[in-house]
Amino acid sequence: MNVETPPLSNLIAGVAATPSNNSSTRDPAFCGDLDMRITRDGVWHYQGSPIRRLPLVKLFANVLRREDDGQYYLVTPREKMRIQVELLAFQAVELRARGAGRSQVLEFRTNADEVITVDTGHRIVVGTDPERDRPLPMVTMRDGLSALLTRPVYYQLVDLAVGTTDNDADVGVWSSGVWFSLAEDASDELRRPTASRS
Length: 198
Prior knowledge:
The protein is mostly beta strands. It has helices spanning 8-16, 54-61, 151-159, and strands at 30-38, 44-46, 49-50, 64-66, 72-75, 80-85, 90-98, 105-110, 115-117, 124-128, 135-140, 146-149, 162-163, 171-175, 178-181. The chain has 2 domains: 8-85, Roll (duf1285 like fold), CATH 3.10.540; 90-191, duf1285 protein fold (Roll). Helix content is 13%, strand content 36%.
């Protein structure tokens, strides 16, 4: 079922009226599929055209969530619309590190200008790209979302990696007092579909 495609201005008005609190607490009726897509390179598109204004991307990102079915939805108090995501919803484009060793704190900034502090609720995970069968480094976010670490950011992260005291072959990083391995994780959670239905 497809949503009757509204003009971008109408869509913006509806989303802008949504409170900025966590979208996971909202549960409106499903309205159908919206002609919006996030491509593998993290660019948002509406009706086939890229959304180039960062404030608009941030506006839509604020109401985006990924549910247990692996699908992505824009969720406002009145509407729930499915969108297409080719890989992950966001990209981590900047890494900042404070401190060292167990006291180190890592922060990522996404292409939607959202800052993520790596801790027990926001983990660094290396999954598998389902299409290209290669490691997929990411940081988990709010509402079931994740951000892909861009190549320069991942290389910066690797430069911070150290071995564990128990097994120096297992390299990883510390953040917020928690150890995060940079080894590929083949857990079932990461094998859930990451792309919305075509």
